[in-house]
Amino acid sequence: MGVKIKLVLAVVLILSANVLGQDEIVNDTESTVSVTEAQVVELETDVKEKEDETFEETSPVELLPATENLEVRSGKYQLNDGLVGEEPVNLEAVDFNSNNVESEKQLLSPPSTTVVTGTDYSYIDGRVLPATTYQNNGQPYVITTQRLQQIRSNFMYWFYDQGGSDNIGDYQRDIHTSTPQIHKNFNFQLPFFGFRFNYTRISMNGYIYFSDPPDHYTYPLSFPVRDWPNINDPSFIGIFFSKCRIGNMRPEEPDPRRPGIYFRLDRDLQTRTDQLGVEMRERVTWDIREGVIGSETFFPKHTITITWKNMSFAGGIDNSLFMTNTFQMVLATDEVFTYAIFNYLEINWSSHTEAGGDTTTGEGGIPAYIGFNAGNGTRSYEYKPYSQASVLRDLTGRGWANGFPGRHIFRIDENILMGTCNKDIDGANLPLMFAPESGNMLGGTIVNITGPCFNPNDRITCRFDTESVLGAVVDVNRAICVQPRFWHNGYARFEVAINNEPYKWKGRYFVETPATATEKIFFPDNSVHERYPPEVRITWDRFNLTTNLNVQLQISLWGYKEVTIRPQLEYIDMIEVGVANTGEYVINPQNFRNRENIMHNDMQFGFLQINLTTPEVFKGVPISPILWSRPIPLGWYFAPQWERLHGQRWSNSMCNNWLRTDRFLKNFAAQVWVCPCTLEHALLDKGRFMPDLDCDRDTNPTCRYHWGGIHCVRSGAPSSEGSGQQCCYDKNGFLMLSYDQMWGSKPSRSHDFGFTPYNEANKVPSLSRWFHDMIPFYQCCLWQEEQAVGCETFRFERRPSQDCVAYQSPGVAGIFGDPHIVTFDDLQYTFNGKGEYVLVRVDHSQLKLDVQGRFEQVPRNIHGAVNATHLTSVVAASNNSQTIEVRLRPQHAQWRYRLDVFANGKRVYFDRTALRVQYFPGVTVYQPMYVLNQSEIVVMFSSGAGLEVVENRGFMTARVYLPWTFMNQTRGLFGNWSLDVNDDFTRPDGTLASVDLNNFQSAHRDFAQHWQLTDREQRDIGVAMFVREYGRTAAYYNDNEFIPNFIREPANFLPANRSHDVARAIEICQNSYQCRYDYGMTLNRDMAEFTKNYLSSITNIKEQNARRVISCGILETPRFGRKSNFFFTPGTRVNFECNQDFILTGDKRRVCEDNGRWNLPDYGYTECLRKQEYSSRTLGATWGIISAVMLPIIIILICVAWRILQRRKAEEREENEFLDVKTRAIDPDDSVKVTSDDESIPYKKDVTEETPEPTEGVQAVEPSDPNYNYGRPYVNLQPGQPRQWGGETEIN
């Protein structure tokens, strides 16, 4: 018995020595107790053995590898700092009346366990504030896995009541009943609820706040304060917002630290090397990463730990001081993201007496408020159902963050997002927190879910739109579901049901198109786009799959085709199995040369997929994250198979097949917008064209498919039949045409956003465009020569660029400053109404548009209230589109986002690359790629109308862009667009107001005020479409009693003693009366200068749009030839040249004339001919010329010969007739004598007489008398004798 007493005494003495050693640094080997040497040796041996058993040597690590779930703790002070597996401590075995300084770990150590003393751990875990310069033997401290697990097994974070300059540690003795708050500077930025603060005030009443509270509170508390700014609306974080006072410790209290408020600030944790800094950093990092979904990359820079220990309620009797609550708030931030950890250790009362609680126990009345308020009348978040409800006591047994009941975690930087489950809430539309918030349309994204509390055997069902999938429970706070495949993009309904309950946990999940989704598989070179690459190298971020880098992966190939009405995305082949997760892999296409994919060799593009070889299984549900590549052509895989099918010219054969197929489809060219001629016009057409991410000068200047281009735009919404337009521009800013080169602009049969109903062929986002428009470009052009027949058919016939001859720039109107308005017809006036008004209204049977603006009073200046307003919100909708509102954020809430965007009543953000462009029914909303802070938002409607909202230094402008189909259709403050300023002041009833532009009151009273909106539908005006928060209707903003300043010039409305302000206004603004007015009213130089800037911007836009570009249109490049330039404006001279071995024919030069037409060719249209063809054509032309020349000669010769022949024939006939006449007897009865001046010819007397009978032939008989004289006349003959010729001829 004596030995046992001695042993116990020695242990106690050593414990005391250890504690005393925490007050000042001593040598670990020094002994501070008086015991025998043998006892010391024996105890040191025991301690050493225990150290060997408990703290095994491990290699230092900075990252915590995957471990089993931490043991669930009770949340009370029984939680010790020992390793996992220690038994709870019997608190009765500890003497709490001892004056020894003891750490929480020592207090909670079981009496049967030998405690490790004189270690670095005990230095941190005591009650004495450690020095931040303390390190492990002068070396940077490296935490071990065991130590990290040890400190994370403790419920409460460190707080100290001793040490420091005043020996009070973190204790705030300046906070007491008479001074219930204290100011603290952070010296860093703490993002909170959209705002950002570098200071705080700690209140004894269970909250910290950043702005002044109201003088009095009424219960129950309601935030934001509706009467702000007349009554202060504080910005605060309320862990237990109730009137408190510092209580007393109960006799059984396990923690001897004094009651009160503790505050500790740990800055610059990322660079700290001391033990406390490193351990605080790692503890917070892993508590948040494992406790909150979506925080896997969070790395804290600064932490704030505030502890309210033993706080009683105000107004109670003396004995109520022992009725106390203890809770702790830990804030961690990297100055972008902020997380709040609420640790509720003990709650014994819920209400103070002023809120109706009793004076003894603090029960009844209105319980404490728990939640967050952004302040300045903006937003609030009340932690239901616990806040101001009797179930507040359940906070100590709920939350379960990191396995601890009583721990609740929130993300609080922009919105308040609950990081732990909520077991006690119920309703039909409960908020669901999930991460990631978006995923690839192809599916496979692991979605982590928090909201409901899960039991291990719960059946989890996740519904994405209409498709349901089974989920798996990970722990009480988290479940996971695998996103299924979608056939559409944009936001989808995401709902979760547990067991047989209805789908009451709801959110919105954003679906990214495959072509615009976050790129996760990278191709360092262009090999994947080639026909026969030697290898294809891929890389990926290995942490995107799993934190376990030792797992094995598999790489597979998928393809897409449209051969039926349903799209087909199918598995093709396994590229490799058992790939190490190194982040890179090289594909050898030769390994697949002998593949025969009979069912899939018609798939010409597809995707690479990487996932786990052996998926993890949670409750029977296999879970494997999937990485998808962007769409890629499959020539590197299928080329050998296509070669066996189509021959070596397989690309030509496949191009021809596509040409035959595409010719059967409907022509869509007439459905798309006409391209602008210049890049300047394209950038200013905000309603019809947006940047093309495949060729964007800000984010993707490579322009793979438009070599030589610097920027492309595409239509912001699909046409009425689902097609899209693309317009690309060269370094000179002129439109690139496919008639000039294969890199020119190309319209697309399928828009990248798809078309309703999306799940049919030709309508699938990205995939249909690749199938119908991108792959044919590979087959016909990229995999052939540019001047191949197939490529020219593609360029000239199937996907030809449209010239810009018919392009018309949009009309523009805008509003800015105080507010100043420029109408579509360039009329400028000022209207300072206060409320909500119609900017543009179009109400036509086939064309509808509503654009509305909210005007609020300008903040006060140094002289008091400012009687002027400015634009703070714009909302728009067209036809059946969703409503989009763009709202100016409060000045101090603009550190990250300058504008708030609401789509269908919900806030949306554009801070991630995949979210820069978001498509909603009937409307596309995007943030320009060069903007990172949401300071410029463009809204594009399918009708071609556009809205651009820009913010600078807290001042907002809105510009509306309308195509010419809206001409003579508009009404509202922006006037009637008719190119006539005289009808701009048209009231809703159609009457014209007579307005004096120099008299602001005239425009205010007689015209603009008639366009005020209400929450009730008004004929020809409409109804206000703004998102209503906290009951703020149109009546809240409309103030018809507000009388603004109607005087135009500061010299006329400022007092005489402020002449320096007048001079300053003139100096800053010069000739801009809008700028002078704004400066004179507000004395805000930023506002005045941006008013001047916005006026200049809209003026320049109007002038640029009015500057019509005359285009001569398309001048085709000759086949096998080239043009000296691709310009098409008047004065352009284009020279033609031919390739080698080709000869140019036709005009060598064409000129674009001033009338917008190319000059007519003098020598025929230009062609480039092969030498053989040219020779053949030249020979033919030569023979043609010869033929053309010889043919008339031949004809003439023939005619001459014919005439000669005829003449000869005539002469022969005459001669024959002469001989006939000479040799036959002439009947004098049948002949007459016909005499003429020239000669006598035979003449038939009557051709109607019958032909005489033929006579006998005349015989020429030689005379018997050779001396017969033929010249002598006839002599008289006897009857019956032949008559002799007498020298004359007789004709009968």
What would you note in describing this structure?
With 1292 residues, the protein is α+β, with helices and mostly antiparallel strands. The protein folds into eight domains: 2-152, no CATH class; 181-418, no CATH class; 430-512, Immunoglobulins (Immunoglobulin-like); 521-644; 663-739 and 751-798, no CATH class; 811-905 and 922-1045, no CATH class; 1124-1173, Complement Module, domain 1; 1226-1234 and 1269-1292, no CATH class. Helix content is 19%, strand content 24%. The strands form 13 sheets. Strands 41-40-39-52-51-50-49-48 form an eight-stranded antiparallel sheet. Strands 5, 6, 7, 8, 9, 14 and 15 form a seven-stranded antiparallel sheet that branches. A hairpin with a 2-residue loop joins β48 (917-920) and β49. α8 packs parallel to α11 (789-798) and α16 (1073-1082) packs antiparallel against α17 (1085-1106). The chain is globular, with a radius of gyration of 48 Å. The termini are far apart. Mean pLDDT is 84; it is low at 1-119, 1228-1252, 1257-1261, 1270-1280 and 1282-1292. Residues 1230-1292 are annotated as: Disordered. This is Protein mesh isoform X1. The chain crosses the membrane at residues 1181-1205. Residues 1110-1170 form the Sushi domain.
